[in-house]
Amino acid sequence: MSLPVLPGFLHAGFECSTHVDRDLRRVDEISLTQHDCHVREDYQRLRALGIRVARDGVRWNLVDRRGRLDFSSVLPFVEAAEAEQMTVIWDLFHYGYPDDIDPFQPEFSRRFADYCYAFARLLARRGHRAPFFTPVNEISFFAWAASDGNLFAPHAAGRGSELKRALVQTAISGMVAILAVDRRSRFVHCDPLVHVVAPNDAPHLQGEADYFNYHFVHEAWDMIGGFKEPELGGAPRYLDIMGVNYYGINQWEHQKPGSVLAPHDPRRKPLSELLHQLHCRYQRPIVVTETASQGDLRPEWVRDIGRQCQLAIEMGVDLHGLCLYPIIDMFEWHALDTPTRMGLWDLQLVEETGRLDRVVHEPTLREVNRLQSWFANGAAERRAHSRVAIAHGPLPVR
Fold it and tell me: Where do runs of H (alpha helix) occur along 235-289?
């Protein structure tokens, strides 16, 4: 079992989508939640809970204006992280990109590499310790959502596979640029961990479901690692830390995306088992980089996911963190006046000032405190004595 990669097991994520939605509106969740105005206070809240790691976003579309780079929009985040001694996993491309470039053109990767190089240099000049980056968030989901899913630009129906490959090449170009600045840099590759099953009325689809689970779920990671389509430029060095995004909707009936498996459906696989399978496949450190539920279900979800992480560690999974995401409430991607009630803190509008106050959800807070206590009181020992200890090394032959 490898040594801890990040300071502390419980992490917090701030929703940082900047996509262009199906109505051709630019969405900026950092601005909508006023995280850009209150980032120092938001980090202070995390520190008060003992959380020292945050996923947060650099908005590429604000930084890159037709090739001219201006990091003024992210400097308050960098300064707040420094002041609060927060380790940030910098999300460099969270669905949103500059308006004047096309993901299918070579210029896209070149511009991304220039932007990544400049941001890495900014951090290095400020004396940052080994930085953490997510180059392209959720390559697999974004490739679907921006093609046949018709959720995000470029709205390229029928070109999902082509877009996935373009995004992989973009991520690789960004990593090459960052490593040219700082060889200590670490990369957290976030993608949904999903599991599909044959519908009860179509058991003959089980073979297709198995193929989907084994190949398509892992395809972006396989490409980044150079184990599939190495001509894209992937290599094992680039597949550093596996970021797992997991919600209740991540298990469904094959060919029926809206048919989510009920919580107690026997066809559901426990998250601990999915994490164990992922670890056996790649032998890489893993972080659960996104997980949450909504409304009154939030505390039960935190408790259950926390228990699944405990089980995964006991099974030998090299698990280095659980990120509650979003930690502060966000707005629905396609209904921008509708809060999701997903966070540890709900957003409450103060009419007189227009400020969005952060109101803690007490039942969820109690579960967060329990999880923090669990990790502080023996998780490290359980990691050290887990049944399987696999170092960060080469992938097994499959």
Answer: 271-282
**Which amino acid would we find at residue 216?**
F
In this predicted structure, the answer to whether residue 393 has a pLDDT above a threshold of 60 is: no
Dihedrals φ, ψ of 356, to 5°?
-100, 100
* CA gap 75, 60 in Å, rounded: 13
Contact, 197 vs 206, CB < 8 A?
Answer: yes
pLDDT tens-digit series, residues 300-338:
999 999 999 999 999 999 999 999 999 999 999 888 888
d(CA 17, CA 29): 6
pLDDT tens string 175-193: 999 999 999 999 999 999 9
What are the backbone angles phi and psi of residue 382, rounded to the nearest 5°? -65, -35
DSSP string, 137-198: TTHHHHHHHTTTT-SBTT--TT-HHHHHHHHHHHHHHHHHHHHHH-TT-EEEEEEE--EEE-
* Cβ pair 23, 327 in contact under 8 A: no
CA 178 – CA 184 distance, rounded (Å): 10
Query: pLDDT, tens digit, for every residue of 338-382?
Result: 889 999 999 999 999 999 999 999 999 999 999 999 887 755 555
* Peptide linkage before 154 cis (omega within 30 of 0): yes
- Residue ranges of alpha helices (H) inside the chain are 29-32, 39-48, 60-63, 75-83, 106-125, 139-145, 160-181, 206-211, 219-224, 271-282, 298-314, 362-374, 380-384
Query: What pTM value is reported for the model?
Result: 0.94
Give the tokens for residue 355: 């400020």
CA separation for the pair 120, 180 (Å, rounded) = 9
- In angstroms, the CA 246 to CA 266 distance is 18
CA distance 16 to 206: 36
Asked whether the beta carbons of 320 and 5 are under 8 A apart, the reply is yes
pLDDT of res. 94: 98
